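User: Hey, my collaborator sent me this sequence without any context and asked if I could get a structure. I don't really work with proteins. Can you help?
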Amino acid sequence: MIRAARVRVPSGLPGWIFVPAALGGLFVVLPLFAMLASVDWSRFFQLVTSESSLAALELSLRTAALSTVLCVLLGVPMAAVLSRSSFRGLHVLRSLVLLPLVLPPVVGGIALLYTFGRKGLIGQHLEVAGIHIAFTTTAVVLAQTFVALPFLVVSLEGSLRTAGSRYEHAAATLGASPTTVFRRVTLPLVLPGLVSGAVLSFARALGEFGATLTFAGSLQGVTRTLPLEIYLQRETDADAAVALSLVLVVVAVLIVVGSRGWASRAAL
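Assistant: No problem. I've predicted the 3D structure and written it out in structure-token form, which is a compact way to encode the shape of the chain:
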């Protein structure tokens, strides 16, 4: 019996490049293993099922889901305009849209506070109508949306540019209206990119800390999300902080891995 020769397919990359790539992978993975090794497994379920922990987890999942919906509703049109339009100031507009990616989160929280706070640019008018946003659950959703929106815009804009516009032009030539083209051609064409962007936005919203603390505060059951609960537990019970951190990592990994698998199937 003749065994088939094992063919080694060259990667086309220089050999040395795998060394810094491996170091980068270790830099990301090793801290996670260190945290995993530090978990007090004898008290793990007791720590993660306390009243404050469950309330923080439930609030985080709920607000992150709402902020992701907002990101989709606002980010899809923004990505379409940035990728399909051409006008003076487009590069400036793109820079402003992506600004939350590089701003310190606490700066974003202060900006939101001076916009929607009691004496803010918009908040002072809302106060007259009896609408209070700062230091409420709504403030949590707005803070998460502010920091997560650019992730969806960047991901979807890249997908739109990669897909090109030839199918859209063909549909328009056949008489389809711009709205029909966008709904029946553009969105299905970039659906995997939209899913990836939405997942990135959800994961970013789930881990938001600085803007939430500054704009929404830390009221248990109202604005204290899981990252805030981890921060407070770190001061009093390090074991609880590590256990809750592991829960947040597991939730994020499951969401990202599951969505990437769905996006891969949708692309086929």
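In plain terms: The chain has a mean pLDDT of 87. You can pass these tokens on to your collaborator as they are.
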